[in-house]
Specification:
alpha/beta; Carbamate kinase; Archaeosine Trna-guanine Transglycosylase, Chain: A, domain 4; 2 domains; 7-stranded mixed sheet; 5-stranded mixed sheet; 39% helix; 17% strand; binds glutamic acid
Length: 363
Amino acid sequence: MRIVVKVGTRTLTQGSDRLSRPRMIEIVRQVVLLHEHGHEMLLVSSGAIFAGRERTGLSARRKDIAFKQTMAAVGQVRLMGLYEQFFDLYDIPIAQALLTRDDLADRERYLNARNTLLSLLRLRAVSVINENDMVAVEEIRIGDNDNLSALVANLVDADLLIILTDQAGLFTADPRLDPSARLIPEVTVIDDHIYHLAGGRGSSLGTGGMVTKIQAAELTTRSGTDLIIAAGSEPDVLLRLIAGEVLGTRFPATVSHVESRKRWILADPPGGDICVDQGAARAVLEHGKSLLPVGITGVTGSFERGQTVRLLDPDSREMGRGVTNYNSTDLIAIQGHQSGEISTILGYEYGPTVIHRDDLVLV
Ligand code: GLU
């Protein structure tokens, strides 16, 4: 399984005024075990701003954005230093990925982020992801790592997102105020009632609240990823969840990855057309192959890498739509050529395929 684990600041500090090294080691150990069982693991970790305060000894009372940016810049290094140390105990390489909203909203940057994270998975490295708080001013912030982790899960087509927090899951009432509150083991429909339980759609509980976790679940369940909210303090929580134990609150996906990706591709207005020869048409239609430059006979329209294009057969009939790895200018240069020649012709390459079969919907 491809699994994204999100840990919040309060989970990392165990409510203390320092990042809890034992807690971090504990999380790393579980991530490593799952990694060693063959799962593909990504970690979204908060705690940069907190670690900056810890490092500089500056007061938690200052909350303005410039101060937070500065603390994040200091703290991200400390946070990664700790993760590097702990993962290194198990000889597992880690990578740092700092993202902003723009990286995920812009087509080309989205694709680049996706490709890099996927290639890190192939390398069997664990990516440790956070928002790039140092440059993320209010307008471009995702703002909370619950939503960030859902966007990351979507970016890499994860099977499961586990959000570890300081509560056991979603309750029928606030367990801190109401002793009769019960844990809800599964939520299949996210409606106003669920938001109400989480504190209200419009509530400004801010980062770390339940509302942002429900927002995350809305996104993941629509894009084919299951989400589980569970307590980071629960012993072996990740291992037990993956072993199938019922813990926390689960939000099962309502569609499959393929369906969600297909819907997204079909909803996107195409930026142009790619015409292919008989051989390529057959490879794509009958053998489920990706589209290579060698089979392309013509390109119309002006489009960017990452845009949706129509795929036309030799009789100009639409065969399907897909997301192109090369822009229209590049395609005109490489059409009819072998994939091995791409880097010689262009001086760079984005891989051997023009449209990967996972990014292709046949009509
Ligand atoms: N990115 C912030 C940090 O690392 C945390 C955001 C959040 O708590 O959701 O400090």
